[in-house]
């Protein structure tokens, strides 16, 4: 193959990856917005605004289901119950955007097969992403049909975060690697990046478990909890995963010490994340070629702490709680980027 042919092939690869990069970049931003929208739906108790799936009382829009919604509002004694027109619209808008995102990811999978030669990439990652999104859709269905079981709702949140991370990783694969003067210091960040990623992922799970069990205000004081450094807690019931919302595994009402155990564990996790991710962010800040990423990690960590403390201080204001969910996704994204860059550098050492 001559020089001209190599040049043509390189140009085709550049163009194909540019198209894929733009689509994936849009999908990353859309997924972040969808995560925050999902938090808004959950925090406003709109998860059962349409108690069937995928439509709303069998209709495409809440407007067409207005008679069913009006009857449900009457049966529940007012609009403070799980069903109302506003809650139905919130739930359905979330479903519409999730469906649109699913269509984009299906398109990415098709494009990855069609342009496989030009992209010089296996389409396997695109189909892995598609499989995760299909599973995420099932979790969305089960969230409604199984009446907001904490394990299912938390799984749905984790699925959203996993989709966001995979899309971000896929987008990074389409970018040209940085021109490091010396990749070895960046490569040395690979294990610290893994530690940070694991810590953030565990903390997101704990945060999701707090939210889906409505345990955010189990402790309303700081730095103590219920006026004590170690209040009465019930870990077995709090972390019994196969149960109904607000119930123990045996079907009794979930006691306050169980909610306290959930909340307190999330607080302890926050301290561990501050120490672990703070250390990784400091190392990243001092590593040539990754200083901006380290600064972003430390800044986002500080923002997340401020948002978390504000949730307790101000009794869970809706904008702050939604922002806290979005901040968790951004912090996760930064650790994904750090791990990707460290992995790239290790391949060049």
Shape: flat
Q: In sequence order, what are the helices and strands, one letter per element? A: HHHHHHHHHHHH
For the biggest sheet, the summary is: none
Structural domain count = 2
Q: If you had to describe this structure to a student in words, what would you say it looks like?
A:
With 349 residues, the chain is mainly α. The protein has two domains: 1-176, no CATH class; 181-349, no CATH class. It has helices at 3-43, 66-75, 85-114, 116-119, 124-145, 150-173, 184-187, 190-212, 235-238, 256-285, 291-313, 318-348. Helix 1 (3-43) runs antiparallel to helix 6 (150-173), helix 6 runs antiparallel to helix 8 (190-212) and helix 8 (190-212) runs antiparallel to helix 12 (318-348). The longest helix is centred in the N-terminal third of the chain and has 41 residues, at 3-43.
């Amino acid at each position: 193959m001559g020089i001209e042919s190599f040049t043509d092939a390189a140009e085709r690869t550049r163009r194909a990856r540019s198209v894929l990069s733009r689509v994936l970049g849009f999908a990353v931003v859309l997924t972040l917005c969808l995560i925050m929208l999902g938090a808004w739906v959950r925090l406003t108790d709109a998860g059962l605004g349409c108690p069937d799936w995928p439509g709303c009382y069998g209709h495409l829009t809440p407007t067409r289901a207005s008679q069913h919604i009006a009857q449900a509002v009457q049966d529940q004694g007012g609009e403070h119950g799980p069903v109302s027109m506003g809650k139905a619209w919130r739930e359905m808008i979330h479903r519409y955007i999730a469906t649109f995102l699913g269509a984009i990811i299906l398109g990415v999978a098709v494009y990855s097969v069609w342009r496989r030669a030009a992209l010089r990439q296996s389409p396997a990652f695109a189909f892995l992403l598609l499989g995760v999104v299909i599973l995420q859709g099932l979790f969305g269905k089960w969230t409604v049909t199984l009446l907001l079981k904490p394990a299912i709702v938390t799984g749905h949140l984790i699925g959203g975060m996993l989709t966001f991370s995979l899309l971000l990783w896929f987008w990074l694969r389409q970018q040209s690697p940085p021109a490091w003067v010396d990749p070895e210091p960046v490569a040395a960040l690979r294990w610290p990046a893994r530690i940070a990623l694991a810590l953030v992922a565990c903390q997101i799970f704990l945060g999701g478990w707090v939210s889906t069990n409505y345990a955010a205000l189990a402790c309303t004081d700081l730095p103590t909890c219920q006026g004590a450094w170690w209040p009465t807690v019930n870990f077995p019931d709090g972390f019994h995963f196969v149960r109904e919302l607000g119930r123990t595994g045996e079907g009794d009402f979930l006691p306050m010490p169980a909610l306290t155990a959930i909340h307190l564990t999330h607080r302890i996790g926050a301290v561990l994340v501050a120490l672990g991710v703070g250390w990784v962010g400091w190392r990243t800040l001092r590593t040539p070629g990754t200083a901006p990423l380290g600064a972003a990690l430390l800044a986002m960590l500080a923002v997340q702490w401020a948002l978390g403390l504000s949730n307790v201080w101000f009794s869970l204001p809706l904008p702050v709680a939604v922002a806290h969910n979005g901040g968790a996704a951004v912090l996760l994204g930064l650790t994904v980027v750090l791990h990707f860059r460290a992995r790239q550098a290790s391949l060049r050492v």
